[in-house]
Each structure stands twice: as structure tokens, then as C-alpha cells.
Prior knowledge:
The complex is a heterodimer.
Chain A: E1 7-14, E2 16-18, E3 40-42, H1 44-58, E4 62-71, H2 76-85, E5 89-94, H3 101-115, E6 119-123, H4 134-142, E7 146-156, E8 159-166, E9 169-176, E10 179-183, H5 195-201, E11 206-210, H6 242-252
Parallel strand pairs in A: 1-4, 1-6, 4-5, 5-11, 6-10, 7-10
Antiparallel strand pairs in A: 2-3, 7-8, 8-9
Helix pairs in contact in A: 2-5, 3-4
Chain B: H1 8-18, H2 21-26, H3 36-54, H4 56-64, E1 67-69, E2 72-74, H5 79-88, H6 107-120, H7 122-141, H8 144-155, E3 159-164, E4 180-183, E5 189-199, E6 208-215, E7 228-233, E8 235-237, E9 243-246, E10 249-254, E11 265-278, H9 284-289, H10 292-320, H11 339-371, H12 375-410, H13 413-416, H14 422-432, H15 439-449, H16 457-472, H17 477-502, H18 508-540, H19 547-563, H20 567-576, H21 580-583
Amino acid sequence: MTGHDAMKKILVPIKMVLDANMRPRVKADGSGVDLSGMKLSINPFCEIAVEEAVRLKEKGLAEEVVVVSIGPAKVQDILRQAMAMGADRARLIETDQPVEPLAAAKLIRTAVAEETPDLVILGKQAVDDDCNQTGQMLAALLDWPQATFASALHVEADSVKVTREVDGGHQTLVLPLPAVVTTDLRLNEPRHCALPNIMKARKKPLDVRPVAECGVDMAAHLNVLSVRPPEARKAGRCAANVNELVGDLHAAGVI
Amino acid sequence: MPQYKAPVEDMMFLLRDVFRVEDVFAELPEQKDNDLETIGSILEEAGKFCSEVLYPLNAVGDIEGCRLENGVVRTPDGFARAWKTFSEAGWGGLSAPTDYGGQNLPRTVQILVDEMLSASNLSFGLFPGLTRGACEAIEAHATQHLKDTYLPNMISGVWTGAMALTEGNAGSDLGLLKTTAVPRPDGSWTVTGSKIFISSGDHDMAENVIHLVLARIPDAPAGTKGISLFLCPKVLVNDDGSLGARNAISVGALEHKMGIHAQPTCVMNYDGCQGWMVGEPNRGLAAMFTMMNAERLFVGVQGLGVADASGQTALAYARERLQGRVPGRSGTVPIIAHADVRRTLLSMQSFIEAARAMVVHTALEMDREKFHPDAAVRQRAGENVALLTPVIKAALTDFGFEATVAGQQVLGGHGYIREWGQEQYVRDARIAMIYEGTNGIQAQDLVMRKLMLSDGLPVRTYFAQIRQTLADAAADSHAAALAEPLRSALDLLEGVTTRLVSGDLANNDDRNAAAVDYLRLFALVSFGWMWVRMVLACAASGKALPEACVQHKRAAAIFFMQRVLPQATALTQQIGAGAGSIMALADEMF
Lengths: 255, 590
């Protein structure tokens, strides 16, 4: 594909999560992770998705990159960051409610319906809940082809060739456009934003609309029973000999 | 292995909760659009750059150092590439004027980025720091033609800047300098002389180095009133902006130094090179000193930055290193369980976080001085900056150096060997106490000049601000608990201030002898003030702060009041003793 018949548009849905460097703390009532006052960042897989879309645009393979996210007003921060990386504009579907993967996929579908992108690139999963579902659900809802866990992506005439990381090695798929691709860690290394681009990103268009206007059922379909931190590691002790070790392991029920 | 992570959350706590900078910037027309979100993303990205690009070069640069090969300075492997990345990302233009390609962001943001640069790689950070200083001098004093010729390429990092002041016989006393400048028929000058200790004097990272050189013109008065400032490029610039012939500037030698090995500190020879005067004849020192407050704030921040880098490694090590036992805990414990190690870590943190707050406080005054529409406000802010500049420069580098030694101590033997980087911080931090006016000179400046500035109005205002915070502290039980020790220390400080300004110590020898102790006392009270303000801000910030941060701030504040601020009593006694024991001894009896 050459410049003049580049894809018109790539849509990149992104998610804000607890920063990967922060130590998560569980809320006192065990209902979830306490995010108040914590540093929130763009999900690392989503950052890779933005980077890939921007690189395609810079190579002349796409004309426009639009990012979309779902969540509270604070989510604008990561949308601005994506625009500082090179996305052209952003959409925020604003809600203070928790968003399950199916609702997220349906909300993104409403953005797809308006934007009619040639390609949707998402992170393969978010590092908060590790659901790994939204991309797949979106592809199913749209009835578009999907390639998940992409470690390489090549745009060809009316199609994309995607190398996926699978258990046995690499698998290469060719998808007719439009299509959904989700990113794995090795797809690229996101750039450092240049200062002038951070400043320019403030002035790029950011469309905010309330979730209620999207006509998507936001009711919870998953029931969170409890959230608790991992058990602290107990102190170990030295076994006197192998027999004692085997006996202890049996007693602990692990062998 | 050690890591450096830019303290963006703590910086944002200061900007958002302690100083409410959006309200300050709202009063400054050129800065009113700077919202916290944008500043946050700038700090975030700058932090990433420093951690991921500059920090990995820090140890490499120290070991490899700069080399002089056939008259050409070679920087350590990776520095030239990092400079290119830094420049292309636009970081050199952060606070530079938009007319010349900069972003015109506030000093407050610039100085926080400077802290990250200094922490991650002090040697590297000096390149943009000096280039900015040179740019500010050119912008303030040079002709339009010089500005148009040099500023865009210096701000974009295509060229760098250097400041050539010191000579073999003219250090703290620049009035003794001997470099000469003779007029040429075309209006330019021929500059001849030799300078030492020239940071970033030459290197292979950019295609040109723009030297600002202090020199004497024919028939100039003796002393500091006969010094002029000249712009001398390493490579001459053609009328069309392209590079022409080499100017008669050469590197005589590289200094062999205790630290900042990756920074090329040069002996520079100006052998009849061509230069252009910046500012008025014989007013060169004044032109150079225009940006001296900013440069000294920058150097103070170097002490803070290196201290934080050392503190981060010390903390990470203390959490993981298993040694010894403590009552009530089973097995070998991480050394952070030991009271003495905790004391050491808190001594570092209680300095670092208060110092960062002082930096923001001072930088905001600089922004008011530069951008406020009301001339009276600008004037007052400028005087406040003048008062605090020697305190920031000397205290942050003195305490900063002490913090690097503490950070080294936490690692025991591992702090003394190279691998963990702690000994490099000790060596690197040392220079900041010396250059840009030694800390002794800073203390003299505070006691001999700044206390008397505008009949003492700035210092009285400063003390009144602290008293106001002490009154405000009653509103919050945590802050109120800090008020009494701070009030006692402030009483001591005000007492000796009066004695030095107009009382029994108001004479040259007593002031001179008291200066260093006085500056330290002044700084301790200032840090105490910042701790009360930070604890008050914790109460006011509602849910914006994580509980762990609030607990940390409150504990560190109490630690500071109980275990650091009591030094105020000893310092007051030392100052009160006067110069008698110091001056009584004849020179030859030392």
C-alpha cells in the first residue's frame, strides 16, 4: 500500500490503569483495589497499540489515528498522552461506573460505528484485571476478523499481515480490512514524547460524551465476591534430611 | 541493581497541594494556561527520559570520562547520542522564549526537570544547564543580530553554550582577571587570554560551542567595574547562518577531577579569537550576573537531585539487604528494620523533600519576578529571590553532599565500591558546593548583603510568612504539633539576625565568621517551615493523596523537628560566640 491509498483511519481504544510501578492496595471492604490518590497511567499494552498506529501513520500507511477511552474525566490525561505520541484526536466516553469487558466492547463498537476505521488496534489485555477479552469481543460484535497477541504487523493492499505469539511459537495471519488487532509486548517499544508534541496535544480535539448517550447496557454481569492481597510469604525452615522434606511436603498436601 | 525513578508524585504534591500553582500561574498572563495536567505530563515524560536514557549512562560516563585527543574533546560513549535525543525531543527549549523556538514554560517546571537531570546524570545535566544560562545572558543583553544568529541553534541543541569566567589568578575575585579584548574595525573584538574550569568548554556532541567570555577592553577601570562580556563561537558563523572557519579557540587541557568525569571541564585558550560584545562596555559582570540567581538555583538543585538518587538506592538496598535481628521479629531482617538505618534514611528524606519544597517556593518567586504584570510585585519577588538564592545554592549542596554520604553509609562496604553507584554520587555532589560561587561565598552574600537588602524588608517579610504558617498550623492537629519546635528555632534565627544586622555582631569579622553557621540555621528553619506547610497541605488535599504518602509526610516532619532542627540551638551558640577565637590567633600561629 502506498501513500495515496493509505488506510483512512486507525482507531485505538485505550484504558487507564493503576501505574505498573505502584504497589496495589486492596480497599478495606475487600470490594476492589483502592485507586484513590494512586498514580494512574495508560495500560502498557495500550501504549504499544498507540505507538503502532502512529508509526503506521508516520510511514504514510494511515491518514488519521483516533484514540478512544472509557472512564472518568481523569482519563483525559492518557488521551492527551496518546495525542502527544502522535494520535490526531481523541474521544472520551465518560462514566464513573466500573466497565466490564463486554460493556467496553459494546461502547467501542459505538465509536467504530461513527468513525468507520479501517483498523482497530487494542492492547491484548489491561494489567489491572488481565481480562484479555475486549478485543476479541469487539471483533465478534463487529463480525470483523481478529488477530490477537501481535508481535509484528505489516500493512498490505486491503489487508494486514500479523505475526502472533502463540504457545508453540509464531503464527502469521493475513486479515482482510477492516480488522481488529491486539498487541503483545514485543510489537514495538513506545517512544518518549517530545516536549513540543506534549504542548501541541493540549490543543488537539478531545470529544467527551456521557456514557448514557451510547445506549449500552452498563449493568454488571460479573459478581465480585471479594478482593484480597496475596498471602504474605510464610517463613521457611530447613529440613534436616530428604525424608523429612518429603514428609513435610506430603503433610502440606503439595505432593 | 540501582534504579532512578523521578519523584513526579512528590513534585505534583508540591505543585497541586502545597503551592497551588494553578492559582499562581493564573496571575501571570503568559503562564495562565499551564494546568496541572499538562505540567504533570511534562514531568512524567521528562522523568521517563532521565530514567531510561540518561541514568544508564551515568556510571558509564564516570568510568570512561572525557578524553582529549589531538585537541578534540571526546565525550563518553553514548553521550552524543543522548544529547541528540534530548535535543530532538525539545527539552533544551522548555523555558526558552517562543520567539527562538522554546516553549516559554515557567521556571518552576524547568527547575523540577533540572532536578531529574541532575539526579540521573549530573555531568550530562550541566550541558543543557550551561547552554540555558548562556542563552539567558544573550537574550537579556546581546544585540538583536547576535540573538537571531545564535539563540535558535542553542535552544534547539544544535549548538551548546559555555561560560568562561575563571582564570588562574581570578576565581572568587573576578576583578583580578586578565583576559583582554581589543576592538576590530568591523565592530567585533579580538579576545586573548586563558581560562580555567570551563564546564562544557568543548566536546563532540554538537557542531559548535558558544563561549561567553569575560575580558577587559583597553583602558578599562581596574577591578570588577572594568570587565566586559564577549560572545566567542568555537566555529565562526557566516552571514547566511552556515558554519565558517574555526575561531582561534582551543582546549589547553582537560581538568582531572574528583567527580563529574563525563563533564569536560576545560582549560580554554582564546588566542586572539573573534568575539562580539554582549551588553555595555565594562558592564560584563552585571550582564553575567543577570542569570546568576537562576544558575545558583540550578546548582542548588544539583545537590538535591544527587541526594535523591543516592537516597533511592539506599532505600531500595535497605529493604532488601538481610542482616541482623531485632526483638519481636523472627529471623534475619532487612536492615530497614534497624533504628539506626531508619534514622539515616529519614535524615535524607526529611532534607530532600523539604529542599524540593524550598526549590518550588523560590522558583515560583522567580516566575512572579519575570511574568507578573504588576511591577511592584515583580520587584518584591525579585528581592525575595535574591534573599533565598544563596540559601538554596549553599544549603542544598551542603546538605545534599551530606545526604550522599549517608546514602553511601547505608550500603556499608557496598557503598564504597563502584558497583552500586553510591560512591560516585559522593564524588559528583562535592563540586556543587564549590562552583558557581563557593558555599562560603554564598554565606557571605547572605549575611553581608542580602540581610540588608532594601533595609531588611525581604528577610522581615520572610520571617513574617513563617509566623503566618505557624498561626495557620493551629487548624490541623498534626501541623500544630510541629509548630512549637519551629517557633523556637525561628526565635533563635530572628535573634541572631538582629545581632548580625544591627547588634553586637554587626561588624565585618563577626559576620564573616558567622556566615556559614547562619546560612545553615536559616536553611534549617526554612526546611521546618516547608514541613509544616506540607503537613498542612496533607490535611487540605482530601482524597487526592494516598494514605501512605500522608503518613510518610507526617512522620518525616516529626523526625525533622525532633532530630534535625535541634541543631538550631548549637548553631545559635556558635554564631553568638563571635569571631574572637577565630581572629585572635596570628596567621603564623595556625
